[in-house]
Amino acid sequence: MAIAIVKDEIFLKHNPGEYHPERPERLEKIYSRLEKPDIAELYKTLAPREATFEELTWNHAPEYVKTVQQTSGQHVQLDADTATSPESFEAALKAVGAQFVGLGAIFSGQAQHVFALVRPPGHHAEYDRAMGFCLFNNIALAAHYALKKLGLKRILIVDWDLHHGNGTQKSFYTSKEVLFFSSHQYPYYPGTGRVEEIGEGEGRGFTVNVPLPAGCGDLEYATVYRKILLPVAESFKPELVLVSAGFDIYFGDPLGGMQVTPIGIAYLARLVKQIADKHCQGRLLLTLEGGYSLQGLADSVAAVLFELAGRSVIPTDKLEEMEETDREPEVLTHVRAIHKTFWPELS
């Protein structure tokens, strides 16, 4: 099978609080959807492993890793909106290890596309602190694994979560080996992700931020990804595509203000798969980030998996509309002006 899912009961045991939006029911709803006959035959299941202390320090301060480790068996409030329960540390270790298992499956030929359906999420976690429901930065550690263990030199991270992946951006802000592309609602939490944040030193131009106003839907997102991500990826020619797959851009999400439907999300999956197929033999790893509508999560994850399996849920007329209609948010002019120096295809 071309598709593998990394899942485990431990991810249901991380519980940051009774009324917390990042609750176990998020994954319960997704896992339940995966058992339905129309989708259960599309993938194989992989079990995660625990990341080691040394692996975590590829991206995080040793003292911070120890701080999270000390929460094992306890309820601890790490920041205003990030908390642990007794099994959160184990879940966090396996959320990171799920990335490594997924990449191992991809590079050994067991699967072409892998979706790590894990909790807690990761893209806000910084070098030395928890943030935004995140303990360790899962996707950043996947990139470090690809650099250190697989010897890759060009990794594309695409973050379509509603919120800017500040932790992931910081992880590679001075690197030319990892290209970080983010579309996100702005201004909004965490307050980062301006167009002018483009990287530093060798990394200048390798951070591409597309901050979007609330209210953007399928056509706006399709335009952003067709007209900005595709040309940049064409020039960068990644050896691996990683996706921070947050589904809080869904039109019914209680924490977001975007209007994207599962069809629009399927189209984003189509484009990242297209990049992976063209440049890196289909090597594509997605990992779950946000998304707080239970129905939105189930429908969106299913739409992505159907797209990866070649059973698209996108109606022909809708596909034509997304591929032929340019509904450009104003910010794209600014993005092009800043990045055409680095990525001539944008000019």
Structure notes:
This protein is of the alpha/beta class and 347 residues long. The protein has one domain: Histone deacetylase domain (Arginase, Chain A, 3-Layer(aba) Sandwich), CATH 3.40.800. It is 38% helix and 14% strand. It has helices at 25-34, 37-40, 53-56, 62-69, 88-107, 138-148, 166-171, 218-236, 262-279, 294-308, 316-324, 331-339; strands spanning 3-6, 44-46, 76-79, 82-84, 113-116, 155-159, 178-185, 207-212, 240-245, 284-288. An eight-stranded parallel β-sheet has the order 2-1-5-10-9-6-7-8, sandwiched between helices. A two-stranded antiparallel sheet has the order 3-4. Strand 9, helix 9 (262-279) and strand 10 form a beta-alpha-beta unit. Helix 8 (218-236) runs parallel beside helix 9.
**What would you call the shape?**
globular
Number of helices: 12
Number of domains: 1
Helix content: 25-40%
Proportion of strand residues: 5-15%
Query: What is the topology, as strand order, of the major beta sheet?
Result: 2-1-5-10-9-6-7-8
The CATH class is identified as Alpha Beta
- The overall strand count is 10
Low-confidence stretches: none
Order of helices and strands: EHHEHHEEHEHEHEEHEHEHHH
Largest sheet, described in full? 8 strands, parallel
First-last Cα distance: 40 Å
What integer value in Å does the Rg equal? 18 Å
Category from helices, strands and their pairing: alpha/beta
The name CATH uses for the topology is: Arginase, Chain A
Please outline the helices and strands.
Blueprint: E1 3-6, H1 25-34, H2 37-40, E2 44-46, H3 53-56, H4 62-69, E3 76-79, E4 82-84, H5 88-107, E5 113-116, H6 138-148, E6 155-159, H7 166-171, E7 178-185, E8 207-212, H8 218-236, E9 240-245, H9 262-279, E10 284-288, H10 294-308, H11 316-324, H12 331-339
Parallel strand pairs: 1-2, 1-5, 5-10, 6-7, 6-9, 7-8, 9-10
Antiparallel strand pairs: 3-4
